[in-house]
Specification:
35% of the residues lie in helices and 15% in strands. It has 578 residues and is an alpha/beta fold.
């Protein structure tokens, strides 16, 4: 492995306005790492979306920290658009540049993408194109950066991007990423060819998946017939191991930046996984089993955060289940700071927690009933009742929390029209319940009703289910909107059904979906035209119920939960058993 291109004069092509913008962004940041280029192995860490979004992603911060902690490595960042300007890409002729040292991306040894959302997949191709890097892995040579990727979206199903990446590092990165860095450094020192390095890494390191080393065979029905390694000594399944002890790592905000989503909040991870195992929730299964960081370690992160900001965001898939949550929030408020809690499980809202939130100045609390009827909540294995929901709303109203945000899904398996009516009825019941019981209290100011279409996710019990027709989903959304059109207290927000179709395609697709992504990139994001031009039927992936014995694109990954267990949960749901 000879590393990336030598300096080619690209730096001179970077216009002074862009350089000034980068410098301004760094002036407003705290905690970034800038090193002098020389003998380091260089990594450009890319987030395929805007700066303000990427810098709110705790996984992105974690990768930046881990790589820079390796003595012989240097890690810099790059984003979809010019940092601080959401309006334009860097000039295609000038390429795109890292934030810290304004180096052309093509000059790095490794280009590493952190990917959280499927709808960002086209941005990955756009960024590589702007950097002058061949999109297909088979077209790249030793002189190009090694293109690697990770993040929850790729851990669920990396196959739609398989042709574009040299290597994936899937699952949790804290333990595996240093091993990969050591292997990369050793390969460079020995002058090992890239393909040999990829083979050795696939054989020796868990969580690593080199898609170019595996062959997919399809049946005459276009279903996957088999996935086979090209060589006998390669693993047949990619085992994804988890970090057992979260206390061994501090997962917290590394670079603080004001011009970002949640820029006023210092982010601290509280837990991973969730014992509730709601059947639609990928995080419950991908990060299984549930693990909590100890209260003492969280408080160390809180102390570091309070040196920068007066608000600490507690992040995790089951924050309200943390046994020390009250003590942690109490500690934060005792420092005259605010504890930020994204959402609380309905049946875990306690008086003391609400008091602490109120002390911290929180005025909006999110609750996630997910479904309006008890029947649908049982299908989801949500484990909460209408009484739980009304009790939570009552407690929040009693404590003068003026705004509620309610999350509901539509298009769920076994959903009927009466279940949409139940969403409307439950929302009105919550509103009436609060009004009638707490007239003397501060008036309920606003209920934000967030309606999202259910999208089947890999490695969940609903992975065999189809997406509901987006036209029908749109009609259901309009029905809910019309029910509250004249009510100024209730605001309905929702996603766009046509983009849910795209997300489902990228979530559930196999390698052939990469052809569609290539067309989308060539046509500057025109999905409608791309879907017409490419001779692949997207409905095959999106609207088709899969039989249990079908080989699924992501079956090559073993996340630690048996497929039979997921089947059993799916059958229970479809039979409406709790």
């Amino acid at each position: 492995m000879n590393g990336a291109l030598a300096h080619t004069g690209h730096e001179k092509a970077m216009d002074w306005k862009l350089k000034k913008t980068y410098t301004c962004v760094l002036e407003h940041e705290t905690g970034y790492i800038k090193r002098i280029w020389g003998e380091y192995n260089t990594v450009c860490l890319a987030y395929p979306h805007h700066y303000r979004t990427g810098m709110a992603n705790l996984g992105f911060h974690t990768i930046y920290k881990i790589i820079n902690a390796q003595p012989s490595f240097l890690c810099e960042r790059v984003f979809l658009t010019v940092p601080g300007s959401e309006a334009r890409f860097a000039s295609g002729t000038a390429g795109i540049f890292s934030l810290e040292n304004q180096k052309p991306v093509a000059e790095f040894d490794i280009l590493a993408f952190s990917v959280s959302f499927e709808n960002d997949y086209p941005h990955i191709l756009k960024m590589m194109e702007l950097a002058g890097i061949p999109l297909l892995a088979r077209d790249r040579s030793e002189k190009h950066p090694l293109v690697i990727g990770g993040g929850i979206a790729l851990t669920l199903n990396p196959e739609p991007l398989a042709d574009f990446f040299d290597l994936f590092i899937l699952g949790e990165a804290e333990e595996v990423l240093p091993k990969f860095c050591g292997a990369f450094e050793n390969a460079r020192r020995l002058g090992q060819p890239r393909r040999e390095f990829l083979k050795e890494t696939q054989k020796k390191i868990n969580n690593v998946y080199v898609p170019g080393l595996y062959e997919i065979q399809y049946s005459t029905e276009s279903k996957i017939q088999s996935v086979k390694p090209l060589e006998a000594e390669l693993p047949e399944k990619i085992k994804i191991q988890r970090v057992r002890d979260l206390d061994a790592f501090s997962t917290e905000e590394v670079v603080s930046a004001p011009q970002t989503e949640m820029g006023d909040m210092f982010l601290v991870e509280v837990n991973r996984g969730c014992a509730r195992a709601c059947r639609f929730c990928a995080a419950s299964f991908v990060y299984h089993p549930v693990r909590f960081r100890s209260g003492s370690e969280i408080l160390k992160s809180v102390d570091r955060g309070l040196q920068r900001k007066k608000k600490v965001g507690l992040i995790g898939t089951a924050v309200s289940d943390h046994p020390a949550l009250i003590d942690i929030c109490g500690y934060i408020t005792a420092q005259k700071a605010q504890a930020g809690l994204g959402s609380l499980r309905v049946d875990q809202i306690q008086e003391r927690i609400v008091d602490l939130m109120k002390e911290g100045g929180i005025e909006t609390v999110a609750l996630a009933p997910e479904a309006g009827s008890q029947r649908m909540r049982d299908v989801l294995n949500k484990g909460i009742s209408e009484a739980d929901i009304l009790n939570a709303a009552s407690l929040l109203a009693e404590k003068d929390i003026p705004n509620l945000r309610l999350y509901f899904m539509i298009g769920l398996p076994r959903e009927e029209e009466q279940d949409i009516d139940a969403i409307i009825a439950l929302t009105k019941k919550i509103q009436h319940h609060v009004r009638s019981n707490y007239e003397g209290k501060k008036k309920l100011r606003r209920i934000i009703l967030s309606i999202n279409q259910f999208i089947p996710k890999p490695s969940t019990p609903f992975q065999w289910c189809p997406l509901e027709d987006v036209g029908l989903a749109g009609r259901k959304i309009r029905k809910i909107e019309n029910a509250f059109r004249k009510d100024k207290q209730i605001k309905v927000i929702h996603d766009v059904p046509k983009w849910n179709y795209i997300q489902a395609l990228l979530s559930l697709g196999d390698r052939r979906v990469g052809e569609i992504l290539l067309a989308v990139n060539r046509l500057d994001g025109n999905w409608a035209r791309a879907l017409k031009e490419v001779h692949i039927n997207p409905d095959f992936y999106v609207y088709r119920r899969k039989p249990f014995d079908e080989v699924l694109p992501w079956d090559i990954l073993h996340l630690g939960i048996a497929k039979k267990a997921l089947m059993a949960e799916c059958q229970k749901a479809l039979e409406e058993e709790e």
